[in-house]
Amino acid sequence: MPAKPTTTVTPEQRRTAARSARLDDEALLAECEQEVFIASGPGGQHRNKSETAVRLRHGPTGLVASATERRSQAQNKATALERLREKLEKRATVPKPRKKTKPTAGSQRRRLEGKKRLSAKKRERRELGEQ
């Protein structure tokens, strides 16, 4: 699985996400652009012919959350709102700075032993090839 590209989040974006994550459902929905569309997949005629899938686009941050798994638009809206809130909370958190660590003595020893075994194997092959 390819790694996600890292995006730099500014302190202003963090503050906006934190403020929005603390809002109640109605206020958060007021900040969002709601889009309903027809979901595909299993679920029969009720799912395939009615607009039950919900996509919420948060205006201030640009985050998008959607839900299509239920046959009820209200349930999908609640699920999409939960997902949007989780994304906002994730955007608001500041990652801990990484501490550089040295390899342990045991790991250094094991790596060198592996290199010695490999070089001995190659040395034997070279000697067999010269004969």
Distance between the termini: 47 Å
Give a count of the beta strands, DSSP E runs of length 2 or more.
Answer: 3
Point out poorly predicted stretches: none
Main sheet specs: 3 strands, antiparallel
Helical residue percent?
A: 40-55%
Question: CATH top level of the domain at 11-92?
Answer: Alpha Beta
Oligomeric assembly: single chain
What amount of the residues lies in strands? 5-15%
The whole-number mean of residue pLDDT values reads 89
Strand order across the largest sheet: 1-2-3
Radius of gyration (CA) equals 27 Å
Class based on secondary structure composition and strand pairing = alpha+beta
- Separate helix tally: 5
Topology order in helix (H) and strand (E) letters: HHEHEEHH
The CATH topology of the domain at 11-92 is: Double Stranded RNA Binding Domain
Explain the overall architecture.
The longest helix has 26 residues, at 105-130. This protein has a domain at 11-92: 2-Layer Sandwich (Double Stranded RNA Binding Domain), CATH 3.30.160. The mean pLDDT is 89. Strands 1-2-3 form a 3-stranded antiparallel beta sheet. It has 5 helices and 3 strands, in the order ααβαββαα. Helix 1 (11-21) packs across helix 4. It is an alpha+beta fold and 131 residues long. It has helices at residues 11-21, 25-30, 45-48, 73-92, 105-130, and strands at 32-37, 53-58, 64-67.
